[in-house]
Prior knowledge:
The protein contains 20 helices and 13 strands. It has helices at 2-8, 12-24, 37-45, 71-79, 105-109, 125-133, 138-149, 153-173, 207-212, 229-247, 283-298, 300-315, 329-342, 351-356, 389-401, 444-463, 466-471, 478-481, 490-496, 503-525, and strands at 26-30, 50-57, 61-67, 97-99, 178-182, 196-201, 251-257, 264-269, 274-280, 365-366, 369-370, 408-411, 416-419. A five-stranded mixed sheet has the order 5-6-9-8-7, sandwiched between helices. A four-stranded mixed sheet has the order 2-3-1-4, sandwiched between helices. The longest helix has 23 residues, at 503-525. The radius of gyration is 25 Å and the shape is globular. Residues 516-526 have low confidence and may be disordered.
Amino acid sequence: TDAEVSTRKKTFAEVQTERLDQAERTVLIKCPSKLNEKKLLQYLSSHGNVKSHFFFENRGISALIEFSEKSSIASLQDAVGIPGASEHHVVPFKSRLFTFTLKNPVSQHMEETPLRLSPQSHIPVKDLIEKLCLADSISSQMYVLLNEYQLTEENIKLRFLACSLVRDFTRAYFPDSTVKPFGSSVNTFGKLGSDVDMFLDFHDTGKHATKMKKGPFEMEYQMKRLPSERLATQRILSVIGDCLDNFGPGCANVQKILNARCPLVKFSHQPTGFQCDLSVSNSIAIRSSELLYIYGCLDSRVRALVFTLRCWARVHGLTNSAPGTWITNFSLTMMVMFFLQKRSPPIIPTLDQLKELADEKDKHIIGGYDCSFVSDLRKIKPTKNTETLDVLLGEFFEYFGNFDFRKNSINLRKGKEVNKPESSPLYIWNPFEQDLNISKNVNQPQLEKFIAMARESAWILQKEDKTQQMISKEPWGLAALLIPFGKSNSSRMKNRMKGIGSETIRSLLDSLKLNNANSQQKAVGK
């Protein structure tokens, strides 16, 4: 559709600004169980035009209401009361979270209308597999998976609202501050149910630089000075964390993790249902989000392939939501990007090519690293590659099933294999901080398990007789790859491992058996 094309062409910054602005005009209402939608909207309209709204299930029915004007919120807030302090005392912080109950439920009960609820989580893997079997090709299976798992318009609005509600707190201390999502919430690769990573930003860039030139004086604020930026970050997050914990409506399980490499506050935001991680602005993380945003927008095959492979890796226990020695989703996504750069002709450009296209406003030097790349998608030539997803999926497994991990590393700046600078089992260059390996955490057994699974998957796709399997109602194509490879295959798996160091085979096969037991649960639970 035209609308789809026009939203696709916006720059990352434009989308962010638009969404943050939208969130500022939005409120969240816990609704009565028996609700007449028309009556609710009629009432809300007395405070101003309602631009959009949707309902979702979250311990009862909630409604997200976006007004056309920010002033409508103040008008609504004037009409809202403070809860009676019968058994609890309340913290009198007035937010944009409200509870509506019916004054006389009996009379209104008659006109209850069924509400359309927007799902905020994806279907379990076993239901997905059934759906996939009904598709007519592996490509269409992959698009079915993408459609089930990707963030919906409503879910994205809810994510930006969660950030906007946190911002209402940070503004009490830092009036210019903003709270923005980064990572999977904004890079086009987010999955329903994933956490919201948000950061606190104080830089209102550009605004001050021009004003300071006027007048005879150099002028600056008197500010508290601390020995390091890290200490400032820790203090700020500590106070904001306490604030959310003590006064934040619906903020629960607040954990301050201030000694991490990147200090953060974790909390669950019950009104929106998200797990949130709040940190202080990390410019490089934002550049990574934008880079992935660009790749995700360039060609629809990119996202379909990434979502498919993330789901595949999850089912087989190659990735895990807990930190550890396995491949992260970010590393896996970068491996997919590298593979797409290596196709002939390439499906996406290398980072160096994107840098060549950058103009003045795209220049970003962060901590001595050049993080410049083009932001305007229209400047990037579309690919001439016409390979189907069926082909690409099989080729991905082939490529990494036979990749020389001992010798080579993966470099997205150049889009080619380069000798490993050090001996980590898996070496993926950080696209921006070029002396870092983003997959430093991955150990040899985990890498070998990945290789074995890739070989096994390539083999399944090659030997497959689709028509036969469809007739006998067996899972075929992608569906066959999303069922943990069971005990029946363990002898074949041993063959897959030929040429892979034998000392890890035993631990690998043990972990496979372990994984079969719990990866089904994990995949369904996540």
